[in-house]
Amino acid sequence: MQAMWQIITKPDILIYLKASFPVSTGRRKLNWLEKDFAEQLRRLAHAREHANLIIDTDDLTPDDVLKKTLDFLKENLT
Fold first, then answer.
1. ∠ CA(74), CA(54), CA(66), 5° rounding?
2. Averaged over 25-53, what is the pLDDT?
3. How many whole angstroms separate alpha carbon 16 and alpha carbon 9?
4. pLDDT > 70? residue 51
5. Rounded distance, CA 60 to CA 77, Å?
6. Dist CA 7 CA 38 (whole Å)
7. How far is 31 from 72, CA to CA, in rounded Å?
8. Is the pLDDT of residue 7 over 90?
9. Segment holding 37, helix H or strand E
10. CB atoms within 10 A of CB 68
């Protein structure tokens, strides 16, 4: 179900963290095939379409992602 994220919770702000197949599988030591990754993207498509912020994390450190998130929240919640 594409809108599962809306059923589980009703977020005030939705932040979508994007990562490529090689980065995703490398970070989490996943043994996914590209078709598994594509299925995950399909399942998350609705959330991505409704995200307030999309962060491409491929070239970012966790601290970079945090900074982008906090900057966005500061700009949009004040």
1. 50
2. 91
3. 15
4. yes
5. 24
6. 23
7. 33
8. no
9. helix 34-50
10. 17
